[in-house]
Amino acid sequence: MGKLLKQSFWSTIIIYIGVILGFINSIILFPKFLSTEQIGLVRQILSASIMLVPLTTFGTSAAYLKFYPKFKENNDQKNQLLTLQLMIIILSCFITCSIIFLSVDYIKFYINDNSKLLFQYFHLLYFLVIIFSLSSIFEAYLKSRYEIILNNYVNGVSNRFLTGIFLIFFSLNIIDFNFFLNLQILIYLFGLIILIIYSQKKEKIVLVLNIRKIRKSIKKILNFCSFSFLGNFSHILVLNIDILMVTSILGLSDTGIYTTAFYIGMIIDIPRRAISQISLPFISENIQKKNFKIIEDNYREISVNQMMIGILLFNLIIVNLDNIYDLMPNSEKFISGKSVVGIIALSKLIIMSFSYNSEIISLSKYYRFTVLLIMILAIFTIGLNLILIPKYGMIGAAYSSLFAVLIFNIIKFIFLKIKMDISPFNYKTLLLAIIGILIYILTVFIPNFKNPIIDIMINSFIISIIYLCLIIKLKLSPKFNSIFYNLIRLNR
After folding, report:
1. Which of 57, 81, 196, 475 is the most core-located residue (most Cβ within 10 A)?
2. pLDDT tens digits, 9-24
3. d(CA 206, CA 49)
């Protein structure tokens, strides 16, 4: 658990550095130098590429994490497992990109006329899909060894830093928008190269064509891959379909407004992503050993800690939302998306509260259930978006995401309770929920100041102090209290 905590701690710090860079890019630089249509175009290309990755990886990342504990003591078997996964990815990339290339005219038919600019840069999709697919297997390679710091650095810091630099180049007329978009390929390719070099340095990788030593497991691996592929694709679809459908139904300009609001709302999800990544090999290893009590204890502890952080961040975002938009350049163009922020933030808070239930099911013998559930949910979400977006616009897309997340997590909670008799909730969950509501009510009574920066500082200070005092007094997290009191002793 020492390595788990260390990796989670440093990953969280790196992720929040990435958040700062993302805030600068999404809230300041993008609105200042790009039109809403251009922002929507950038976001949609990246979102569409991410949506296609499950097709091109064919469940290999999850399979690598699941089967690695079985082969971890044998170098030949580990290398053969990685080789098999890479062979699947290369073949899947070729098939997927070929199908998309042949279907472009058909896709155009279903896209809003306000989004036709997307097809001028459709070539970026193929390059990004291949890069993201290869990156996913090397990220899984590092996760299996409890190494997630570099993954978070590449995805959260390096990519965003380079995007910001190139955006500044664009603002200075050093490059045009066309060149800026094409540079996205180099940004993510650079990240992939870093992952490969570090993986090779960490543990020498030898690709082998002969995979005889894992031949007995190939059927199980491919079977898991096929189910994991369906589950991952449906899951990514649920998380990204709102952006795609906003583009398709409303246009690229609305996509730019929606994704900007979406970014603000998803800030609270940052700690969960760090913990979830490092928890995957932990879950896989303990499921192999049938240490379900260890899993449940960790499952519950993480739920409480994630709720603690999530509730604080949720309230900080809500109370400072007007100030955030006041600080945004050309905010009048983006203000229509403000109502989306709270809904997205609430959906992320729900996910954090239920802890890593998806990961437990996906890496257990019940993984087929997740696949079936997420496929049904994907169809439900698409249908809900088709109803709500034309009627309510962007806010309809946000509510679709919220309903999907809530239903999905409730069903998974019930399933885990019945099948494995584990739950992420206890009395602390109720206390945290009550505290969260009280803090939310408190935000109404905090006076507003004319300066948005001063307002943010005062609001954040008041809420944070009151919230942390309640958390410490009620001893909701022994680890947090221990860290807090140790810091006090060090400063004496």
Report:
1. 57
2. 677 778 778 888 888 8
3. 29
